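pasting for the record
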Amino acid sequence: DRNSHLIYGFEPGTTKQQFISSLVQVTAGYSLLFSPETIGTGTRVTVRKDADGIAIAAYTILIFGDVNGDGNIDTADAGSIVDYENFLVEWDPAENAAVLKAADLNGDGNVDTIDAGLIVDVENFLLTVNQTTGLAG
């Protein structure tokens, strides 16, 4: 998504190698830098010009349901959402926009225990998350 500078639409557990080899095309003379090296929500992908090392674009990876950035959807993510709802952690709307978007699995604009429950259902194979729309179903 060039407007919001988010990369999404691929499955949880995708490795860096899979991401580079089958999901994106990098024009000759350019390369991708990942920070951190894992592929999860919040990972920054910088497009760099090889000749001079100048960064020309930066994107943030978003995996719907993965709020802790490990690339998986599990109870750790559900627990983080419960902590957020109970004011034990804070997510800044600007700085943590990808995390907030990843957490809202029912698309109602709120991050709450309903979303945490959906994650538990996903982990128990009762639901899946559409990685294009971000909705559990």
